[in-house]
Amino acid sequence: NVDHGGRIILPNCPNFVSGVAVLATSTWAALEGARKLEVEWQMPDDGDDIDELMQQFEQGLDDEALEVRRDGDAVAADTDIDVVYKLPYLAHVPMEPMNCTAHVEGDAAEVWAPTQNPPMAAEAVATVLRIPQDNVTIHVMRSGGAFGRRYYADFITDTVLLARQFRRPVKVVWPREDDVRHDYFRPGNVQRVRASVRDGRISDWHQKVVSHPREIYLERDGSPAEIYNFEFPAGFVANLLFEYVAVPARIPLGQWRATEHSGNVFVVSSAIDELAHAHGIDTLALWLALIGDEQYVQVREDFRFDASRLRRVVELAAGKSGWGTPLPEGRGRGIAASYNQGAWVAEVAEVTVENNNVVVDRITCAVDCGRVINPQGARNQVEGGIVEGLSTALHGRITVRDGIVQESNFHDYRFCRMREIPEIDVYFADSADAPRGLGEGPLPPVAPAVTNAIFAATGKRVRELPIRLS
User: Fold this and answer.
1) Which residues does residue 186 pair with via DSSP β-bridges, in sequence order?
2) What average pLDDT does the segment 167-178 reach?
3) 3-class SS at 30?
4) What is the pLDDT of residue 215?
5) Distance between CA atoms of 389 and 399, rounded to whole angstroms?
6) Are residues 263 and 355 in the same domain?
7) Which CA distances in Å does 356 have to 289, 359, 443, 452?
8) Residues whose CB is less than 8 angstroms from the CB of residue 374 and which lie 6 or more positions away in sequence, other chains included
9) Do residue 204 and residue 140 come from a single domain?
């Protein structure tokens, strides 16, 4: 039901629509018209609720699961740690909201869009317009941030349909509120880790993931996108079991910066820290024992992991951060590491906690991404990943009530302000290898490095994001 106040006419409005567009001769006029427009949506009676969904995830820890990977003997029933971690749904919120310009004439379409996936965009345009894909031209524009959101073509198909209907070039601009609420979100999940240490090294590892599945992202061997069968520490632990439980929901899901690593690295690095403290072992020592001295670890037949490069960045980050040197009361350090897109990354966070208020003072990051061609550009990538990782660790959470996303802008889906940004030190390992991906790897270790530092400072263990101590 659309109240257009006599100003806007919606001819032949179907019973089911994905949205309502306001067209004007300028962006400002269109945005003002959209603000004044009152649209009443009929919602399904069984819309998703985040709290209920997270409860279902927790209950799923007791359900029968898909076995993703099993190595060695069964994980012992009596393990050193048995802990549960909770991760929220997250939005992309690039600084430039979704937008697209299109011109449709006859059976041809020309599109100007900041897209991460031109082939998918061309296919989607051809499909909705029912024209040959060869007749679709995609001009890829520079993006004001993307982080996986512009992988999808929903804002592009909206534009070409409007351009065809109105028989003139049309530019569609989403307000920030639409951009936040109509995202393809990173799925939240609940994970349980049962693990043990024997003779100073992790001997048993059972990791069970329960989540709302991104069903289109499956490895060719059938393992789910939320925990692939080659995830670390696969190949490094003698007795290992990965399991997955899917819980259906309607919240749209998609690629999010570092995909499943953005959550799984938090779980793995946190559990390693918990194991170390359970045995009175220095966390750095347990990391190095887990990595071992071999250069390569055959994780699976087609994937050989260069463990020497992971060891290099862990040692580099620890050394540059002053790991092991005393800190005053209320301050602590934590360490975490990851591998993503061919880059090995380790980070040490230093925090101060006073009256449950967390201040991240410093993050030391060591990276092996092969040969660094543009040091300033590479450093910018690392710093940007750290800032986004810290923002989501401290503030990131999407809330859904009755199928409706509650957050709408940066006032309630917060990013770190400048006063919250710590000193960031970045070190690149010397390497003659080919350059590798750097846009994702620096993000995942931030949250566990910070939460492990909080434990070192306070003795309080953080197992749920975003971080809340009170």
Assistant:
1) 90
2) 95
3) helix
4) 62
5) 19
6) yes
7) 33, 10, 24, 15
8) none
9) no
Q: Tell the burial category of 390 from Cβ atoms under 10 Å away from its Cβ (0-12, 13-18, 19+).
A: buried
Count of helix runs (H) and strand runs (E) in the chain: 10, 19
Residues 399 and 310 both lie in one domain:
yes
Examine the domain organization and report whether 311 and 246 are in the same domain.
Answer: yes
Question: In which band, very low, low, confident or very high, does the pLDDT at 420 lie, cut at 50, 70 and 90?
Answer: very high
Q: Are residues 441 and 313 in the same domain?
A: yes
Which pLDDT belongs to residue 222? 60
- Distance of alpha carbon 8 from alpha carbon 242, whole angstroms: 55
Of 305, 328, 309, give the one whose Cα is nearest residue 317. Answer: 309
Separation CA 50–CA 365 (nearest Å): 34
Q: Are residues 165 and 293 in the same domain?
A: no
End-to-end, the C-alpha distance of the chain in Å comes to 44
Residue 345 shares a structural domain with residue 198? yes
Residue with token string 């632990």: 237
101 by DSSP, 3-state: which? strand
SS3 for 195-260 is EEEECCEEEEEEEEEEECCCCCCECCCCCECCCCCCCCCCCCCCEEEEEEEECCCCCCECCCCCCC
The pTM of this model reads: 0.94
Show the tokens assigned to 57.
């995830």
User: 294: which 2 tokens?
Assistant: 């071999």
Please check whether residue 20 is in contact with residue 370, taking contact to mean a CB–CB distance below 8 angstroms: no
Q: How far apart are CA 277 and CA 455, in angstroms?
A: 10
For residue 368, which amino acid is it? D
* 436-439: long-range pairs with CB below 8 Å, 24+: 436/341, 436/342, 436/343, 436/369, 436/370, 437/340, 437/341, 437/342, 437/343, 437/369, 438/341, 438/343, 438/367, 438/369, 438/378, 438/381, 438/382, 439/257, 439/341, 439/381, 439/385
The whole-angstrom separation of Cα 437 and Cα 36 is 45
Nearest-angstrom CA–CA distance, 1 and 6: 14
- In terms of C-beta distances under 8 Å and separation of at least 24 residues, what long-range contacts does 20-28 make, across chains too? 21/158, 21/162, 21/172, 23/162, 23/166, 23/170, 27/171, 27/173
Helix (H, G, I), strand (E, B) or coil at 138: strand
Tell me how far apart the alpha carbons of residues 300 and 158 are, in angstroms, rounded to a whole number.
Answer: 43
Whether the per-residue pLDDT at 464 is higher than 60: the answer is yes
Query: Is the link from the previous residue into 466 a cis peptide, with omega within 30 of 0?
Result: yes
Query: In this predicted model, what pLDDT tens digit does every residue of 105-156 receive, in sequence order?
Result: 999 999 999 999 999 999 999 999 999 999 999 999 999 999 999 999 999 9
